Amino acid sequence: MSDTLALTCQKHLFRLPNNIHYLNCATRSPFSLRVEQAGHDALTQQANPFGLHPDDFFSGAVRVRALFSALINNPDPDRIAVIPSVSYGMGVVARNLSRKPGLQAGQRIVLIGDEFPSDVYAWDRVSKELGLSIDVVSMPSRSEDASQPLGERWNERLLNAIGPDTALVVVPPVHWMYGTRFDLEAIGERARSVGAWLAVDGTQSVGALQFDLQAVQPDALICVGYKWLMGPYSLGLAYYGPAFDDGIPLEEGWANRLDSNQFHRLTEYQPAYRPKAYRYNVGESTHFIQMPMLEAALTQLNDWKPERIQAYTSMLLANAWPILETLGCRVEPVNGARGRSHHLVGVWLPEQADPMAVSQALQARNVSVSARARVLRIAPHVYNTPDDVTVLTDVLQEVLR
Fold first, then answer.
1. Does any domain span residue 354?
2. CA gap 40, 55 in Å, rounded
3. Per-residue pLDDT of the chain (401 residues; tens, 9 = 90+)
4. Closest by Cα among 88, 42, 83 to 285
5. Degrees (nearest 5) of the Cα angle 24, 43, 48?
């Protein structure tokens, strides 16, 4: 498919019934037929593993590293590690924070408010061990300076929090609950100017929103595979930059060592790791069944292109926002890298509305979204149709009026 052509609905590539309105990719992506078939093929192959070669333990991940690197504009696939979860990926950052040049007790770890737990729990122990404090930059109140969009104010508040005493900044491109975007290029520049590390949780954006690694220059980028990468559960990918070269892994896996594909020499114990991020691979990173599924998903995403996914989801929901605003709902405006995304949108319900009751009413009509606090999280993808959005708005009009 040409990069210049607008995406049309891709529902024919998924096994989604017409009466199911799945607007919830932020919770979990459905498998495409292509990914499903890759899983079936891998299962069939594993039923008879005769002829398996040592290099087969590594080749699938090599292809996946290259595909993921193409998706994020990373020129060096050797900087990609295979991980099982965000907590594991952030655990690597926490494990190596003590090695950061110039780190001193009393410095701060800067987080954003209402962040996903895996991006919060990672720092409790290490902050105590290293004498660091945790600075949470909360979302501004809507009553504060309402003339300026909330996303703009939150970004400014975060940038102002990054100073000479900042050791680490942890931030996503898109807030997992609210859909608010963070200007990672500006945040990365500010972090570098004060010598702070930048760790990005790209789980709720990479694959559906363009991410330019060379422009952002994070020290770490961590993504799980089962949301916007559209792959299987318990398999993810992480980029670790030069700050993590020669670092300390969470595990001492045999496959992460030099010459580990030479099975006849495995008891000639090798102290040296494979280059760059390989030392951070989770054990049993081959994933004979899941890796081909992730490979199929990444191949498809590189064809679709994140910028075209954004354009499709923007078009899909364009007519819904005026309807929801008449019901008293609030949606953050589009404001570049400091506004809202199109693939994950937080809809603030009216004060009198019960988010769980609204969610249950939608579920009764086979509309799948997520209620997070007072926000209804709507997360469409290319498999969604205008009819999905029509049913969503019809139910909301019935419930909120």
1. yes
2. 22
3. 456 689 999 999 999 999 999 999 999 999 999 999 999 999 999 999 999 999 999 999 999 999 999 999 999 999 999 999 999 999 999 999 999 999 999 999 999 999 999 999 999 999 999 999 999 999 998 766 667 899 999 999 999 999 999 999 999 999 999 999 999 999 999 999 999 999 999 999 999 999 999 999 999 999 999 999 999 999 999 999 999 999 999 999 999 999 999 999 999 999 999 999 999 999 999 999 999 999 999 999 999 999 999 999 999 999 999 999 999 999 999 999 999 999 999 999 999 999 889 999 999 999 999 998 889 999 999 999 999 999 999 999 999 98
4. 83
5. 170
Is the domain of 105 the same as that of 174? yes
Find the helix or strand (DSSP H, E) in which 82 lies: strand 80-83
Q: Which is nearest to 343 in space by CA: 379, 301, 392, 307? A: 379
Q: In what order do the strands lie in the sheet with 197-201?
A: 80-83, 236-240, 220-224, 197-201, 166-171, 108-112, 133-137
Domain housing 378:
11-31+305-400
Domain count, the chain: 2
Q: Are residues 139 and 198 in the same domain?
A: yes
User: Which two structure tokens, joined as six digits, stand for 34?
Assistant: 């292509």
Q: Which of 224, 229, 225, 232 is nearest to 290 (CA)?
A: 232
Comparing C-alpha atoms, which of 303, 35, 338 is closest to residue 158? 338
Asked if residue 2 is part of any domain, the answer here is no
Q: How many CB atoms lie within 10 A of CB 367?
A: 23
Residues 246 and 371 in one domain: no
Q: What is the CATH number of the domain that holds 321?
A: 3.90.1150.10
Residue 134 phi, psi dihedral angles, 5° rounding: -110, 125
Q: Is residue 254 a part of any domain in this protein?
A: yes
| Strand bridging mode 236-240 / 220-224 | antiparallel
CATH of the domain at 294: 3.40.640.10
Predicted TM-score (pTM) above 0.90: yes
Q: Are residues 309 and 296 located together in one domain of the fold?
A: no
Q: Is residue 379 part of a domain?
A: yes
